[in-house]
Design brief:
Helix 5 packs parallel to helix 6. Helices cover about 30% and strands about 25% of the residues. It starts with a strand and ends with a strand. The longest helix is centred in the first third of the chain and has 23 residues. It has one domain: Metallo-dependent phosphatases (Purple Acid Phosphatase, chain A, domain 2). The protein is an alpha/beta fold.
Length: about 240
């Protein structure tokens, strides 16, 4: 029996870390999963959206260059927090954790993005926003279906205990503020890997749990709001840091 604490969508909310540390001591999980979005990345994200709407290439503005220092500070604070814990933590990037090389350099070995780790449990993951065709790794992180499936297919012969994604599957865990935030690529990853658990994020307010075939799929809700989840076998308990 393993006790998992699921987290997602920190978005620079440094004030929650002291409360989270207390909760981790209280709950005593065996592992922690984090489903992405450590930084805010507002300038990068706004430029990406504006460029898409205006049908032009995004530009590296002075504001975006200045935002890099904020990103690096959030990464340092978050990963230093994880590394001080006695609990192993496994992380994928969110769509805002761009550029990809900056995230990977800051991660200090906690990342299971596009890789597989065999601890007492077998964990793999694919972060960023999973899409049908778009790819972007500088302003935001978006990965196309073909790259995702080609990367994860070699793991299909393994017995996978946990998959961590940022994008939720299309399900009750993906609909937020009238918008579908999920990706059918994640549904297909569940079919491919048949994990016991899948932890996701991205839809901040769509906290919930759903069985998708034989996979217990969990969106813990956004950590920036204080949300977390504890999963032990088929028992799921949502909580909020107060």
């Amino acid at each position: 029996m393993i006790r998992i604490m699921g987290l997602s969508d920190f978005h620079g909310a440094i004030h929650v870390l002291a409360l989270l540390q207390e909760k981790i001591r209280e709950v005593n999980p065996d592992i922690i999963t984090f489903s992405g979005d450590i930084v805010k990345g507002y300038k990068r994200g706004d430029e990406w959206l504006a460029a898409r709407d205006e049908k032009r290439a995004p530009q590296m503005t002075e504001d975006i260059k200045n935002e890099e220092q904020e990103d690096l500070q959030f990464y340092h604070t978050f990963f230093s927090f994880l590394n001080r814990l006695s609990v192993p933590a496994f992380v994928v990037p969110g769509n805002m954790d761009a550029p990809e090389p900056r995230f990977l350099k800051a991660s200090k070995g906690n990342v299971v993005h596009r890789s597989l780790v065999e601890t007492p449990v077998t964990i793999t993951g694919f972060g960023g926003q999973l899409t049908e065709e778009r790819e972007e790794t500088t302003f935001v992180l978006q990965y196309p279906r073909q790259k995702v499936m080609d990367t994860m297919e070699p793991f299909a012969h393994k017995k996978i205990d946990i998959v961590i994604t940022h994008s939720p599957p299309v399900s009750s865990l993906s609909f937020e503020d009238g918008q579908e935030r999920g990706s059918l690529v994640v549904n297909d990853l569940i079919d491919l890997l048949n994990p016991d658990y899948l932890f996701c994020g991205h839809a901040h307010k769509a906290q919930g749990v759903e069985w998708i075939k034989t996979t217990l799929t969990v969106n813990p809700g956004a950590l920036k709001y204080g949300n977390y989840v504890i999963v032990e076998e088929d028992t799921v308990e949502f909580g909020r840091l107060v």
